Amino acid sequence: MSQVGIIIGREFNERVRKKSFIITTLLMPLLMVGLMFAPMLIMKYSGGDEKHIAVIDESGLIAPRLQSGKELIFEPTDLSTEAARKELTDKYANGAGVDWKKEIADYADYLKKQGPITPVMPEKAAPVKEKTLKVKGWPFGADRIKEMLAKEKETRKVVEIAPGVKVNFVRIPAGEFVMGSYRGEPDAYPTAKVKIDKAFWMAELETTNEQFNVVFPDHDSRFVDQQWKDHVVQGYPANKPEQPVIRVSYNDAMEFCRKLSEKTGLKITLPTEAQWEWACRAGSDQDFWYGDMHADFGKKDNLADKTTLLFAVYGVDPQPMAKTNPWYKYYTFLPKEESVDDGNLVQVGGKAYEANPFGLYSMHGNVAEWTRSDYVSYPYNEKTKETSEYKVARGGSYIDRPKYAASHTRKAYYPYQRVFNVGFRMIIED
Ligand SMILES: [Ca+2]
């Protein structure tokens, strides 16, 4: 290595005397300690009898020379001319050399021949006609829920899906509500009066890794990606038993429910969009069961909050980056609601937040949840003939701001997609 280095260094010094090269890159100072004086970056790889030497000049061109044995052959080439670059690229990069100046000139010429550019303005969207729908007894509060549940025989159900693995369900009463919202994205309206004909059971929490493993023991939710390249850990764990399962497709979730139904004799499935939204709202006509878009969600759910800043990490076994670090502003790029502190960076297991008035946890955040509905246009109609190649996921996740986590927010994914922040919640129909 040192002998090669000296020869290369000498070669370059000679070139420098002849031509002035621009120093732009010294990317590998550790490898190149012996060659720091060379005004170019040189990389040397050795393999058997052959030596490959790559030269990177200011254009980023890599020009490897093959050497045999110990003898080094240098073809004096003037890398600063376009012709030489093209020649070397052709020779060492499978004929990929182009005269870039000519290429740009040709394209400019082509554009000129297309005539003057005239902007094409998008069509103006028709103003949204908001229709205020009224449903008797809607919205409602905790007192009304008590009355509704008083008619039910039971309001809680525990299903043991494997020895020691239990799922807690709460009774969701039947009723009628206004589904969708004009405050949401265009796919969340027109709104519709929707009737939930029958009461049903819904899991208090999102399906956990432990529960999912009862049917699919090989499933691994793995990790949430961590910033910083040189980490020695795989990321933030997403596969702890109590955490909500993720990276499961709609198909996986339905198969899970089907197998559990077989096993338990219960009609376990995913909620429809209407069942989900009815359950999430728990009587509220606001964007969240606890308030509007600007409500403090700190104690209510796990969304993209102040904690999201902690994604800015660095170093071996990456640790939070100091605010004074020059990289800080780049590593905190994720959109977030910095005025709220919900205390969790990624998805958590258990009852870390308050339940909604129906007794359901983390409907808005933590992870999004598959429904069994197709992604079709509103107003919502249970009996629609319209179909879609997408299925709807509802709710937001630890990485979503409130505007993407409202009770009316819809997300569309292919039924086979295993999404990094989408899990599901079971329901049982009578
Ligand atoms: Ca959070």
* Strand ordering within the main sheet: 4-5-8-18-11
CA distance, first residue to last residue: 76 Å
Q: How do the helices and strands follow one another from N- to C-terminus?
A: HEEEHHHEEEEEHEEHEHEEHEEEEE
Which small-molecule species are bound to the chains here? Answer: calcium ion
Percent of residues in β-strands: 15-25%
Poorly predicted residue ranges: 1-9, 19-73
Structural class: alpha+beta
Apparent shape: globular
Helix content: 10-25%
Overall pLDDT level: 86
Largest sheet: 5 strands, antiparallel
How many individual helices?
8
Compute the number of strand runs.
Answer: 18
Radius of gyration, rounded?
Answer: 31 Å
Q: Any descriptors?
A:
single chain; 430 residues; alpha+beta; five-stranded antiparallel sheet; four-stranded mixed sheet; 18 strands; 18% strand; disordered N terminus; binds calcium ion
In a few lines, what is going on in this structure?
With 430 residues, the protein is α+β, with helices and mostly antiparallel strands.
Notes on the structure:
This protein has 430 residues and is an alpha+beta fold. The protein is built from 8 helices and 18 strands. It has helices at 2-18, 82-92, 100-113, 142-150, 209-215, 250-264, 273-281, 328-331; strands at residues 41-47, 50-56, 65-68, 156-162, 165-172, 175-179, 192-196, 200-203, 223-224, 236-237, 267-269, 313-314, 319-320, 368-374, 391-394, 410-413, 422-424, 427-429. The strands form 6 sheets. It has a 5-stranded antiparallel beta sheet with strand order 4-5-8-18-11. Strands 16-15-14-17 form a 4-stranded mixed beta sheet. It is globular, with a radius of gyration of 31 Å. Residues 1-9 and 19-73 have low confidence and may be disordered. The chain binds calcium ion (CA). Calcium ion is lined by residues 302-303, 305, 307-308, 342, 344, 398.
